[in-house]
Design goal:
The chain has four helices and no strands. It is mainly α. Helix 1 runs antiparallel to helix 4. The longest helix has 24 residues. The chain starts with 9 loop residues before the first helix and ends in a 6-residue tail after the last helix.
Length: 103
């Protein structure tokens, strides 16, 4: 069985690039002495496809920078965990409401 690749629109790709840039900036500028929360990193998408692309890119980032990500601590680790939790929530919510068609 052959599965056709998903075609992501330029808007999906731009949204993902912005999300990754915001995540990287938050991780680079994280300060453990801060007591204020870091706030929402991303604007919630209104469809499943950009979430899938973001999840794919985060997995690629994790594979490429695994050692660096394992060394995260304190505020940086909390930022990454919150980002992953947000993405997982979106994927769950969007997958539940997405019409599925199986052939």
């Amino acid at each position: 069985m052959e599965i056709n690749p998903i075609e992501f629109t330029p808007e999906h790709q731009l949204w993902v690039l912005e999300c990754l840039a915001r995540l990287e900036h938050a991780l680079d500028t994280a300060d453990d002495s801060e007591t204020t929360p870091f706030g929402t990193l991303w604007q919630e998408p209104d469809e499943l496809l950009p979430c899938l692309l973001l999840a794919e890119r985060i997995c690629q980032m994790e594979q490429a920078d695994r050692q660096q990500l394992e060394r995260l601590s304190g505020h940086s680790r909390a930022i990454l965990q919150e980002a992953l939790s947000t993405l997982a929530t979106w994927l769950f919510q969007l997958a539940r409401t997405c019409p599925s068609v199986f052939e």
